[in-house]
What does this fold into?
Amino acid sequence: MSDALWGALALVLVFEGLLPFASPASWRRMFEQMTRLQDGQIRFFGLACISLGLLLLALW
It folds into this structure.
């Protein structure tokens, strides 16, 4: 299980690094737009990500 957890963490880091590496200007604009979101909108996005991740884990 530990190997799978480290592998999953590694993949998250790879995916998180793709946009800033490929298009730093787009990443900066997106980050600036995200700072303008309200707390409730950010929480909803976080909840949606958690839910989707749990669903994918359950199906796998």
